[in-house]
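Re: that chain you flagged

S.,

Sorry for the slow reply, it's been a week of failed gels. I finally had a moment to sit down with the sequence you sent. For the record, here it is as I used it:
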Amino acid sequence: MPYNKLSLAEMMAESEEYLDIGSIAERLGVVNRTIERLFEVFAKKLKKSRRRSGRNFVYLWSDVLQCAKIHTRIESEATPSVAIKRAYTK
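Prediction finished late last night. Pasting the structure tokens below so you have them in one place:
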């Protein structure tokens, strides 16, 4: 199930809240497996912003939203372009 890019671009994280996979999938309008794939891609980044709630992990909503926007190419990561890297590495 693909992301709805218009609604995803409008979403913002106002407060610091932790959500489980089901709640995140409901907010983004996708199935749970899509969220699990997103977590697999951004595992290193999201590992720092998760905590346990009983047996399950809960993730910080602002970080998950940012990763979803990067994944759908609505936003870009803060990495410099190749031309800038080349100029400063020589």
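What I noticed first: The two ends are 44 Å apart (CA to CA).

Talk soon,
D.
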